[in-house]
């Protein structure tokens, strides 16, 4: 039985997410001070940040080549939104659990340090769990047959966006 991760639209976004991460890895290796935000889409991904279009094109091409050559570690990125989401959910649940834990002698306000400690401990687990979720669920390094169809640069005031459209053979 096929899983939801194998459904064509989900699989496509997972692949695009992997190429986005690999591209950010390549760009960051070339310029460690570069500040970028990426977002996978159904057709490819968007990169937000000040970078030349030629650099984006070269990085996407290299990222695809390296993923196709088996460098699957490039599909996972430590600053992915998946990690932020996991951290938020775990911290919220931990704080809520600390609030609900039966304390007959403590008011809710006096439970605040317990809630903060629970949230901080949850954040320790968030980063490695987020990386595991990226590896197994939110990205797929299986990008055989993908190619760059188009890269379009747009600018709205100080915001620069590169829309990378990927094609499939």
Q: Short description, anyone?
A:
By secondary structure, the protein is an alpha+beta fold. It has four helices and four strands, in the order αββαααββ.
Description:
With 169 residues, the chain is α+β, with helices and mostly antiparallel strands. The chain has helices at residues 8-30, 53-68, 81-100, 112-138, and strands at residues 37-40, 44-48, 146-156, 159-168. A 4-stranded antiparallel beta sheet has the order 1-2-4-3, with helices on one face.
Question: Features of this protein?
Answer:
elongated; 2 domains; 51% helix; 4 helices; alpha+beta
Largest sheet: 4 strands, antiparallel
Question: What is the structural class?
Answer: alpha+beta
Specify Rg, calculated over alpha carbons: 20 Å
**Quaternary:** single chain
End-to-end Cα distance: 25 Å
Q: Summarize the amount of helix as a percent range.
A: 40-55%
Order of helices and strands: HEEHHHEE
Number of domains: 2
In spatial order, strands of the major sheet run: 1-2-4-3
CATH top level class name of the largest domain: Alpha Beta
What's the number of extended β-strand segments? Answer: 4
The proportion of strand residues reads: 15-25%
Continuous helix count: 4
Shape: elongated
Question: Do you know the CATH topology of the largest domain?
Answer: Threonyl-tRNA Synthetase, Chain A, domain 2
Mean pLDDT, to the nearest integer, reads 94
CATH architecture of the largest domain: 2-Layer Sandwich
CATH superfamily of the largest domain: Threonyl-trna Synthetase, Chain A, domain 2
Uncertain stretches of 5 or more adjacent residues: none
């Amino acid at each position: 039985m096929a899983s939801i991760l194998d459904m064509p639209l989900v699989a496509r976004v997972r692949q695009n997410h992997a190429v986005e991460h690999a591209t950010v890895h390549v760009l960051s290796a070339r310029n460690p001070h570069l500040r970028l935000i990426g977002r996978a889409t159904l057709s490819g991904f968007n990169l937000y940040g000040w970078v030349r279009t030629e650099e984006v094109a070269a990085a996407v091409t290299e990222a695809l080549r390296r993923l196709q050559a088996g460098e699957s570690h490039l599909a996972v990125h430590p600053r992915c939104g998946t990690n932020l989401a996991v951290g938020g959910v775990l911290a919220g649940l931990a704080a809520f659990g600390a609030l609900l834990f039966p304390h007959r002698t403590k008011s809710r306000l006096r439970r605040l340090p317990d809630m903060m400690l629970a949230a901080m401990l949850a954040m320790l687990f968030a980063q490695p769990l987020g990386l595991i979720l990226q590896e197994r669920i939110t990205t797929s390094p299986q990008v055989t047959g993908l190619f760059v169809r188009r890269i379009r640069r747009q600018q709205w005031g100080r915001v620069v966006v590169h829309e990378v459209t990927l094609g499939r053979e």
